[in-house]
Amino acid sequence: MEVPVWDSFWSWLATVEPLGGSLLEKAVNYTANHKELLGNYLLDGRCEISNNRAERCAKSYATGRKNFLFHDTVNRARSSAIIYSLVETAKANNLNVFQYLYTLLLYMPDYKQEPAGVEAMMPWNDFIKERCSKVMDTETETPENRGQIPL
User: Fold this and answer.
1) CA-based angle 119:124:130, to the nearest 5?
2) Is the N end or the C end of the chain the one with fewer CB atoms within 10 Å?
């Protein structure tokens, strides 16, 4: 589907004759010199043409940069990295981030030493998808009445 568009683009680019030293010449030369690299995403259907998704994931981290001035120890920096990783992984799996973190805090104390319990807390697990993709009543979901994780 995209290959014919690229073929047309490369044919057109070959006909462009920019003035020497112009910005257009720089752009044409850069593009022509990177033809193979620009088409790499076509080799794997999972790849995207742009890195917009990665940029959006990094944006939340970049906006918190000033907060990171307070990472005066390795443990604080590690804790922050863990939280950002959890949040971005929840987003990537289309989960409600608040509900995902709430569920982790609700269940993990009892299951953190059990590999099956940890696996049940992963964002791609059906238990988590069910709990964190819809609206959850946090008033009734408390440690006292939370139930068990299906292992």
Assistant:
1) 100
2) N
